[in-house]
Amino acid sequence: MAFDAVAVAFCCAVQQVPWFTSRPNKRQALARVTETPIGAFLLPFLAILTAGTVAKAFSGSFEWLYPLRFFAAAGMLWVFRRSYAGLIWRCDWLAPAIGTIVFLTWIGMDHFLNLNPGVDPRVPTTLLAPRLAKGIWITFRVLAAVITVPLAEELAFRGYLMRRFISANFNCVSFQSFSWFALLASSVTFGLLHGGNWLAGSVAGILFGFAVVRRGRIGDAVVAHATANALLATYVLIFRS
Question: Whole-prediction pTM value?
Answer without folding.
Answer: 0.86
